[in-house]
Amino acid sequence: MAAQETVEHKYVYDFAEGNKDLKDLLGGKGANLAEMTNLGLPVPPGFTITTEACKAYLTTGREPDGLAGQIEAHLESLERAMGRRLGDPDDPLLVSVRSGAKFSMPGMMETVLNVGLNDRSVVGLSNQAGGNDRFAWDSYRRLIQMFGKTVCEVPGEEFEHALDEAKRAKGTQNDLDLDADDLRGLVDAYKQIFAKHTGREFPQEPREQLDLAIRAVFDSWNAERAILYRRQERIPADLGTAVNVVSMVFGNLGPDSGTGVAFTRDPGSGAQGIYGDYLANAQGEDVVAGIRNTVPLQELEQLDKTSYDQLLGIMARLEEHYKDLCDIEFTIERGKLWMLQTRVGKRTAAAAFVIAGQLVDEGLIDLDEALHRVNGAQLAQLMFPRFQLDHEFQPVAKGIGASPGAASGRVVFTSARAVELAAEGEAVILVRRETNPDDLNGMIAAKGILTSRGGKTSHAAVVARGMGKTCVSGADELEVNVPAKTFTVGGHTVGEGDVVSIDGTTGKVYLGEVPVMPSEVVQYFEGELDPETTDDPLVRAVHRIMTHADAARRLRVRTNADTGADAARARRFGAEGIGLCRTEHMFLGDRRELVERLILASGERERDDALAALLPLQRADFVEIFREMDGLPVTVRLIDPPLHEFLPPLEQLAVNVAVAQERGEDVAKEEALLSAVRRMHEENPMLGLRGVRLGLVIPGLFAMQVRAIAEAAVAVVRDGGRACPEIMVPLVGAVQELETVRAEAEKIIAEVVGDSGVEVLIGTMIEVPRAALTAGQIAEAAEFFSFGTNDLTQMGWGFSRDDVEGAFFWRYLELGIFGISPFESIDTDGVGRLVRIAAEEGRAARPGLKLGVCGEHGGDPESVHFFHSVGLDYVSCSPFRVPVARLEAGRAAISTTGSDSR
Ligand code: PEP
Ligand code: MG
After folding, report:
1. 735-738 contacts at long range (C-beta below 8 A, 24 or more positions apart)
2. How many Cα atoms occupy the beta-carbon half-sphere of 439 within 13 Å?
3. Which end of the chain is more exposed for a tag (fewer CB within 10 A), N or C?
4. What is the mean pLDDT of the chain?
């Protein structure tokens, strides 16, 4: 027997056996309960069933061998520790059964409380509670309700109706007015509902209750809302959840009991202090659901000073131990404090930076760790504008600033309507009394969320913060009437479709649309706020961490810019060059006419005239950009899109010609244009005559651009400035294409630069799969490669970048074929492999070959880490993403050297 036990897989861990680093196995909640237990903090005894047990169950559809016996053994030792047996009629042990995955998924999975109660032990519970019958029957009805709903899929509204009915019969609206007899009657009603829906009686056997509840928690990993949440938060689908079985402690045993949640610092701003909500005489779920309004935690000092002081001591200890902001859930049962949960707390983007800076000041972490604890997505959020308020805008209500940002939009009251209107392109604000996990779709679709109930830790607040979505919660002046689709506030009635504005930082709610103003972080990057003298803690923290990121990173960061203004802004944001100057926009506006002349040219002479007219204009464009970049490298890409993009659309032209003919007007010019457009029409223009192909077909076009670039550089240098041009050829698939362009370009460059000292590099985009696969050959003719991952993704997958997002990506995301659009974050396995091959083979052929990326992925946080790992020299992205790329490049550097773990 003993030998058999040693080979059996271990699926159950007592809290004393785990620790905070076992999150993969015990989930976040279980690992942290174990850690607190081992720190000697008052945690109710319990045990954790591992994620491995869950995964085995989800794969095979049954509990793995040995699990039942291990649960039995741990239950027995729990019973011994508590001196009570599960469901004992005279003195019952009750347990909660709680989910707990590696990554927090608030409210997404199931919990069942009060397991162990039945028709007999309810009496024992009443005795334990000093003859408090009301409490015992209330606990029992909660069990049937939770168990029925989560374990047996009984529709929750049926229980709600029965509760409303009991209150109506009693002539009250408040649950607390129901006495023991009313609740006993409610238990009967609940049992009937249970039997009607399940075809069986409510299980009286405590162990059966426990086993079914555990199974329901396992199953809840694959509940629709959990799947949706994981997709949104990019949590892998195969982790499974652990299950925690914890002895119940009760916060609803009278005024000397209660429950609360707390943060060791403000999760909104990062400010130091004690932040939390407390609710006397209530169960934990009441706080999280935001069903009753809480009081600030500080008021606990008056109610129960001993517990308050003990709690503050524990919070300080936890911060010191975790070296980070912790959030906790606790319960006080008749004056005794119990810790029910802790974890490193979620926080807003601003708080993440501020706290990381404070912890460095306090000596708890170093700068590498501070950099590790923030990310580019948070920085991007902080670069959003905020409301611009003057006296004209008076708030009509003030709730809790639950998740920062500024959002205006049309009011909707249901998740379904939010989804509908958002699909039509409307900005919507989802208004609810409180949200619950079923509102997830609507929350994703909405620009912002406004609730009339609930604190900073309500469902709406927690989920919105996680999504980075603006949220105001607990705006209790709002009377929300969902069936009537209205809310009233301060004498105003607001209906569906009316516009409101909400400020997730201050919690204020405005009627109508409020204009917005820029973020202080952007002002800092723009150089308008001095980080040394400002008293804004966020700006100081951002500056400090960015400075460290810049010192740590190996990747350079350039920008995609094709105007002097964009180039200038990008430099202020820290760009170290231009990685992609697209020249095509320079052919629009009043230059269209010259391009038409070029395309319609009937002979060499006309074409050369058109090119000669374009040359000085292009030269002026490049002078402006070189001046702005002042000697930093500027990669100018020769024209890429098909020429017909510069001509009017075929249909419009055909109609114009027909109408003009009808009127008897002279249409010779339009007809020529029409026939050119017809001639150039392509079924698949993105795979047609564009890029280098165009340069090889239209004589003189690339040559004109090369000359303009070289002349502009020489002009700037002769003027005392600096210029460092890099000419980039688009859409190359074969080295011969590049060689042909290069031969012509080199001649022109030699002729133009003379002895000016200007050096011009010639390189290529790698954006056609064949180019990636023949990179060794192409490198012979290229001084640099820049990966065009937009086209490489398009051509690597074989789908059109312009059409597919709306056509089928939603389905691919739903099916999990994509975790995220491959246009947003690089597909490392496929397209990334092409990048890797090209980088390796290119460098093998030409050591020191300069490598960069200029597709949209250059500013995507995850992709930046990939490009770092492949060994690129730089990423290039739009000006606004430059700070994000700098930060992530720094983070990538410290995570590969391993110094982040101190
Ligand atoms: C690319 O293809 O990634 C690229 C940068 O070029 P464009 O987006 O202009 O095609
Ligand atoms: Mg491209």
Report:
1. 735/774, 735/777, 735/778, 735/780, 735/781, 737/692, 737/693, 737/696, 738/692, 738/764, 738/778, 738/781, 738/782
2. 24
3. N
4. 91
Residues in the chain: 902
How far does residue 791's CA lie from ligand 2's centre (Å)? 5
Reported pTM:
0.78
- pLDDT value of position 145: 95
Residue among 581, 582, 853, 876 whose CB has most ligand 1 atoms within 8 A, to mutate? 582
Q: For the residues of 151-209, what is the DSSP string, one character each?
A: IH---HHHHHHHHHHHHHHHT-S-GGG--HHHHHHHHHHHHHHHHHHHSSPPP--HHHH
Picking from 441, 14, 497, 445, the residue whose alpha carbon sits closest to that of residue 229 is 441
Given the DSSP bridges, would you call strands 428-432 and 406-412 parallel, antiparallel or unpaired?
A: parallel
**Atom 1, ligand 1: which residue's CA is nearest?**
788
- How confident is the model over 669-686, as a mean pLDDT? 87
| Lateral strand order in the sheet of 486-489 | 479-481, 486-489, 492-495
**Which residues make beta-bridge pairs with 761?**
726
User: Which stretch of DSSP H or E encloses residue 893?
Assistant: helix 882-897
Per-residue pLDDT for 187 more than 70?
A: yes
Q: Which run of H or of E encompasses 538?
A: helix 537-552
Tokens standing for residue 266: 């403000």
Distance CA 888, CA 868 (A): 10
Q: Please give the average per-residue pLDDT across 176-200, as a whole number.
A: 95
Distance 679 CA to ligand 2 centre (A): 24
The answer to whether the beta carbons of residues 870 and 772 sit under 8 Å apart is no
User: Nearest to residue 846, comparing CAs of 775, 788, 787, 789?
Assistant: 775
Of the candidates 839, 896, 902, the one whose C-alpha atom is nearest the C-alpha of residue 865 is 896
User: Measured between alpha carbons, how far is 388 from 572 in angstroms, rounded to an integer?
Assistant: 24
Ligand 1 centroid to Cα of residue 380, in Å, is 22
How large is the average pLDDT for residues 709-721? 98
* Dihedral Cα 684, 687, 692, 695, nearest 10 deg: -10
Q: Measure the CA–CA gap between 500 and 583, rounded to whole angstroms.
A: 42
Long-range contacts of 56-61 (CB under 8 A, 24+ apart): 57/215, 57/218, 58/218, 58/221, 58/222, 58/240
Distances (CA, A) of 597 to 297, 605, 612, 614: 75, 11, 11, 11
Cα–Cα distance for residue pair 760/746, rounded to 1 Å: 9
Q: Pick the closest to residue 850 from 881, 832, 875, 818 (CA basis).
A: 875
In contact, 172 and 182? CB cutoff 8 Å: no
Mean pLDDT, residues 832-847: 98
Q: Kindly state the helix (H) or strand (E) to which residue 786 belongs, with its residue range.
A: strand 784-787
How does DSSP assign 649-666, residue by residue?
-HHHHHHHHHHHHHTT--
Indicate the top mutation candidate among 640, 801, 823, 875 to test ligand 1's pocket, ranked by most ligand atoms within 8 A of CB.
640
Q: Which of the 8 DSSP states describes residue 383? A: T
Whole-number Å distance between alpha carbons of 833 and 766: 13
Q: Which atom of ligand 1 is nearest to the CA of 855?
A: 3
Lowest pLDDT segment from 5-19, 278-292, 403-417, 669-683: 278-292
